[in-house]
Amino acid sequence: MIRHAVRMLAIMYCVCGQPAYSSYESQAVMPPLSFSQFCIQYPEDCQRHDDRRIRDFRSSVQRWRELAQINSIVNFGITPKDPPASRRDAEWQIFPDEGNCGDYAVTKRHLLLRSGWPSSALLLAEVVIRATGEHHLVLLVREGRAVLVLDNLRPVVTPLVDALDRFAILRAESGTDPQRWTREVSAF
Fold first, then answer.
1. Angle, nearest 10°, between helix axes 60-77 and 101-114?
2. How high is the pLDDT of residue 28?
3. CATH code for the domain defined by 28-182
4. What pLDDT does 25 receive?
5. Read out DSSP for 57-121?
6. What is the overall mean pLDDT for the chain?
7. What is the Cα–Cα distance from 30 to 42, expressed in whole angstroms?
């Protein structure tokens, strides 16, 4: 009953919230329904978080190691599983035993937020895998001038410029507001 109510609230949010394209920022779009449902279940992960990292003590090498470590822990800590027909991709969860790409991406984002990374640097992105046409979720991480991809299909953190030959970005979270999504690739 509660799951049904959550789904209905998320659908109402998507339908009534704003038009598919909004003038809030260029190329603003509705977030995936899965994201809306995730935010109902995990509201803290959908709020703006400022940078709490201590810059003097964490070099770029240490931050790179942290990204690689979290990517590896999550990739090996969740058993890949196609969602059952009743669940589909609609219910992203943080650190489930078994999960799909959405579960991997939100878990990585959750761990990085808890490590002090700002929400503006951690952007969920819906992509299409060029080889298969399959929709997929990854985490884009802004680190200095670089944008890095944390993907459950790859064992290593990859620069976005190198990953764009494997997939095309459909939409991603806005760096200014975690609740907003955009199609504008230059925003990353």
1. 140
2. 83
3. 3.10.620.30
4. 46
5. T--HHHHHHHHHHHHHHHHHHSEE-PPPTTTTTS---SS-SEE-HHHHHHHHHHHHHHTT--GGG
6. 83
7. 18
